[in-house]
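Signal transduction histidine-protein kinase/phosphatase MprB: structure tokens wanted.
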Amino acid sequence: MRRRLLTSTLLVAGIAVLLLGVPLGVVVSRLIVDDAAQQLRAEATRLVGEVEYARIQETPLDPQQLEQKYPDRYIQIFERGNPPKATVVGTPPPSGQQMTEDAESDSGIFVRVSRDRAQVEQDVYARLLLIVALAVAALAVAVGLAIVQTRRLTLPLRDLAMIAERLGSGDARPSKHRYGIPELDRVAQVLDRSATRISDLLTREREFATDASHQLRTPLTGLTMRLEEIVAASNHPEVVREEGEAAIVQAERLTAVIDELLAAARRQRHSQAEPTSIDQVLVQQVTEWDPVFRGVGRRLVLEGTRDLKALATTGGFGQVIATLLENSLRHGGGTVTVTTTSGDNYVVTEVTDEGPGIDDEIAPKIFDRNVSGGGGTGLGLTLARALAAADGGRLELVRRRPATFAVFLRPADATGRNRVVSGPA
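Answer:
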């Protein structure tokens, strides 16, 4: 822990020094060189003015005075005339080490000022050395601070890591350890409170799931038996028979859901997708929902390819279709069409209606939790997409107007192949 913290601090400090020091060194070097060139250019321009003034005053140039005024400079002055004049002041810099700037006037005066580049480079090296010294000092300070902090934080962090690991393994007992550091003490307090809450929540959830499952299974079983007796005893009223069969289906579905809840509470859920008849699930859903649609003057139609099989769970796929049909009933309009097609990599079931469709503002987040365009709970499509993903498929909005939802599932023969569809987990 100490070594990692020290290494990471030193690495961060080194990166910061490099990110700041290297650009700073480049900028400083360029500034010094540019400043030297600009100074030469200003001196050449000023000399042009002085030579023109001397010509106007008809006074000769004094090389000694120019050498005193511009020390360490090599100056060449050329005056166009009859005869032309040339004045040289100073010692020329070594070959290849010259910095030269020129200036020229309209009257034919040309001035060239040169200096030794080595002097400028010495100035650059001095500034770079200062930057390197500051960088080393910053790294030394960072290492010192890192050593102090690692000594102070290592033991409390190790203790907190052990507490968190114990909490994650299911031992939700508060430790009540404190370290004299406000931030770490705050973390320890939060872990203690979290341990207490997790323990209480786990206890209440397990008890609720187990008790609710056992208490609900008994009345649902009795309800199923009574409905079966009603269906068996009804000889003429077809409506009673139809409604009774639908009620049985609902009761059996509730029983299956409760079984899943009970298995989840006992951590024994092993639900996996298996080859499922698409027609069987869709016919069941259409039979169940058709009376409701007819009751409001609408039609429910099943079209497309028959005898398709896909990898799914009957309960999960049925709940997805039921959610889509319920949404079409509440928010759509006209005839609702359920269409099945198949391809090489998927089996798709589309549910579409003739309603106004989905607003463009809501469409991108239609599957988000608590998002609803018609005053609903905003949970139906979210749960439906999760159920489709649990079966290895996906639920998508393929068209906004009219609203068309599609459920993509893996073909029944794709058990040994790579998964070809994906969805949110």
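The two ends are 35 Å apart (CA to CA). The chain has eight helices and eleven strands.

Cheers.
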